[in-house]
Amino acid sequence: MGMVEKKKIIIDTDPGVDDAMAIFVALRSPEVEVIGLTTIFGNVYTTLATRNALHLLEFAERTDIPVAEGSHVTINKTTKLRIADFVHGADGLGNQNFPSPKGRQIDQSAPAFLVEQANLNPGKVTLVALGPLTNIALAIQLDPEFSKKIGQIVVLGGAFLVNGNVNPAAEANIFGDPEAADMVFTSGADVLAVGLNVTHQVLLTDADRDTLAQSGRKFGQYMSKILGFYYSYHHDSYGVQGVYLHDPTTLLAAVNPSLLTYTEGVVRVQTTGIMRGLTMFHNSNRRFEELTEWSNKPIVKVAVTVDAAAVVKLVMERLMNS
């Protein structure tokens, strides 16, 4: 058997407690090579997302991986952003107030870095998008060929036929920049959306956190430390004895697509009114007579089911194998 070529991935991220977990899992996944992190607002503002990304790579002793800072505003230049610090802590990492990282981001912007990497490795780069989709939409604007050159875009986003988590209509990442999301879903890129309908099935329990704490392993102990704030939020908001693994599930969908099942169709994002941020899926089986804003739009994949136990097992193994 020859060596299987590792999948090149870039993680677009707003770290974030579960982003930290996804990044660590990626770094411990032999199937993939992380070739960069790009940062975006969401759980925290972009400046802090960059700082946290640099900190996480420093902690993981992987300062060889470049960090490119992304947009500070939405695609329509909105500066009033929705920041989920009440979920992740004011510092985004469970209020641990880690020292400032020594490294800094590269001079290139996130969209420019994404375009460059897609050009250097056409069809070979998987982009795992864990925050609002602003940087990806900007990359599409920067290079009209980007959606053909990027291998796959695995998006944590949407709530397909379930309620959102910002309000009943919308999931946080899509709500963060609905115009950018609609642009990405209709770009013609190979897009796979992993929504709340799937990630809410994947629960890391309180007992799992204790196992991480007792593992004596670097990443496991780090995660158990920063998870406290995130657990409190879940206990209060959802009444569950655990936390949802949104970002790690999405990352593992990129590493091992067979952990999930998918359906295919057109996805449009509602950009106005009370339903702003709603992801609407059309399964494309039904043919409508008249031309609409759904007609002749590219097909994307949407995750439907997940092997939750296998995802949790992989996350635990990789965090404790560090």
TrEMBL record:
Involved in pyrimidine breakdown. Gene3D superfamilies: Ribonucleoside hydrolase-like (3.90.245.10). InterPro entries: Inosine/uridine_hydrolase_dom, IUNH, Ribo_hydro-like. The lineage of its organism: Eukaryota, Viridiplantae, Streptophyta, Embryophyta, Tracheophyta. Belongs to the IUNH family. One of its GO terms (biological process) is leaf senescence. It comes from Dioscorea cayennensis subsp. rotundata (White Guinea yam). Residues 9-312 form the Inosine/uridine-preferring nucleoside hydrolase domain. It is found in: Cytoplasm. Keywords: Cytoplasm, Glycosidase, Hydrolase. SUPFAM superfamilies: Nucleoside hydrolase. GO terms for cellular component: cytosol. This is uridine nucleosidase. It comes from the Eukaryota. One of its GO terms (molecular function) is UDP-glucosyltransferase activity. It catalyses: uridine + H2O = D-ribose + uracil. Its EC number is 3.2.2.3. It is an enzyme of class 3 (hydrolase).
